[in-house]
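Progress narrative, Year 2. Work on CMP-N-acetylneuraminic acid synthetase from Sporosarcina psychrophila advanced from sequence curation to structure prediction during this period.
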Amino acid sequence: MKITCFLPCRKGSERVKNKNIRPFSSYSNGLIEIKLKQLSEVEEIDKIILSTNDEEIINYAELSGIKNLIIHRREEDLASSQTSTDDLITHARTLINDGHILWTHVTSPFLNSDAYKKIILSYKESLEKGYDSLMTTSLIQSFVWGENGPINYDRSVEKWPRTQTLPPLHEVNSAVFLSSADIYSKNEDRIGNVPKLYPLDKIEGMDIDWPEDFDIAECLLNGKLANI
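Result:
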């Protein structure tokens, strides 16, 4: 099974300035340094395509010495805050012609090489069971409400059931999307019609999206409560 990793990493984060390459704990090149190291240790990944418009990231990646790393200088019109995920899906498909595409992000620093290997193995097994793709999730098993009331339980049956009895919901955490290049072409999507939902624990599934996320993640790593 040929697996190509697609790693989008644009310049100009609006919420956390330079979050992809600013120093993170003891890593002077931050999240991109961590993620490239993790991915390079996954033997099941044949190629890593880093798609970025950030010259600082490109300069670091060129000196990383990772043999299966391909750097793609992304056009600016595909690297703005207005760029849609649908446009990036088309972009990924133009870069990867065959095999399977593992889409991941540097903002999941605690998804380490061992975790990627387990995800790939689960994907291979899920294909044999009738699934056509995989995406990682974070489980929610608590009281979830919308404007019109509770979503995952019935208050006419029990107003406050034990949370352990509530049906778990899956929140897509964007750590990994894994499917074939054919699905990208046919569905114009990074998942198929029958995706395998792969729950991650709270630390593995952590996504750095806000300044406080960055600070919390550093504290977890510095306190040896998380592994990379």
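The chain has a mean pLDDT of 96. The longest strand covers residues 169-180.
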